[in-house]
Design brief:
Elements lengths: L3 E2 L2 H21 L6 E7 L3 H17 L2 E7 L5 H13 L5 E4 L9 H7 L11 H8 L8 H12 L8 E5 L6 H10 L3 E5 L6 H6 L3 E4 L17 E4 L3 E2 L5 E2 L4 H5 L4 E2 L6 H21 L7
Parallel strand pairs: 1-11, 2-3, 2-4, 5-6, 5-7, 7-8, 8-11
Antiparallel strand pairs: 9-10
Helix pairs in contact: 1-10, 6-7, 6-10
């Protein structure tokens, strides 16, 4: 068996094209364009690349983009004051604070400072809680993007078993909630799990979101399973690596995401969709997610 590639680049491009049409329709009707503010703290090269990509996506779709590049030495109170200003800005529908922050910042407090209806990352406790209660609003972007990929290939959720490796607040936990909402039986493996390999081999849908190259060998993959590699690590010569041993896993899986070009583009397009959803709510526009 050789797995089919689950191409995030192509799917994300098609979604951006549809979003562009929706934004054009809104502005033609006299509404302002959706607005996204991105805060970058410090000079982390990878973060700068991510922010540049997000701004490029906004330009392509027609979303107004505002960037704040702040010095790494900014104190907690000053950073929170910038968020307060954006919370009060009527032209800004979504606020994203790019991770990582400086060591002296309290990231949880920063996330909590963003208004839940402008939390387009989907990290606020209110939005995670809504997802847990099966009443989702703004969803965590990576799990949302993964679900759209699974929908795209016609995944049959009910009766399926998923194993998620990694239990972070931003990916692993909301990923499990998304799959539960879809009717999947979900197992989560984490750093205290003693039988991760056994759990992985039972999975019809295997999601790894740890950020450790080679964590998932090919023989952990069930024949015909869908493998979603969220992990991404920059190695020697600036090469990007996923968690999964790609070639070995590809020989066993039914579908597999590449790294790069798999989950990453879908995370970014989910951010755009959340921004559109937030804007529709603020502007009183009926919005049906794509």
């Amino acid at each position: 068996m050789t797995a089919q590639l689950l191409d995030g680049n192509t799917l994300a491009k098609s979604i951006r094209q549809r979003l562009r049409s929706v934004v054009a329709q809104w502005t033609k009707q006299g509404f302002r364009p959706p607005g996204l503010a991105v805060i970058l703290v410090g000079d982390d090269p990878a973060s700068a690349i991510y922010v540049k990509g997000k701004r490029r996506d906004c330009e392509e779709v027609g979303v107004y983009s505002k960037a704040l590049h702040l010095d790494a030495s900014i104190d907690q109170a000053e950073l929170e004051a910038h968020i307060d200003d954006l919370n009060a800005d009527p032209d800004i529908d979504g606020i994203l604070v790019q991770s990582p922050l400086s060591a002296h910042h309290d990231e949880d407090r920063i996330i909590d400072r963003i208004l839940p209806n402008k939390d387009v990352d989907g990290f606020h406790a209110y939005n995670i809680g809504r997802l847990a209660l099966r009443r989702p609003t703004l969803r965590s972007c990576t799990p949302m993007g993964v679900m759209q990929m699974l929908d795209h290939i016609g995944t049959q959720y009910k009766g399926a078993h998923a194993t998620i490796i990694g239990a972070s607040n931003h990916v692993g936990r909301p990923m499990g909630l998304e799959l539960l909402l879809a009717g999947v039986t979900v197992t989560t493996a984490h750093k205290f799990t003693t039988n991760t390999a056994e759990m992985a081999r039972q999975a019809d849908i295997l999601v790894s979101a740890v950020g450790k190259p080679g964590l998932v060998p090919g023989d952990w993959v069930k024949e015909g399973a869908t493998v979603i590699d969220v992990g991404i690590t920059r190695g020697a010569n600036n090469k990007l690596y996923g968690d999964v041993e790609f070639e070995a896993a590809k020989a066993r899986a039914g579908w597999i995401t590449p790294v790069p070009g798999g989950v990453g583009p879908m995370t970014r397009v989910a951010l755009l969709q959340n921004t559109m959803q937030a804007a529709a709510s603020h502007l009183g526009i009926t919005w049906t997610a794509l």
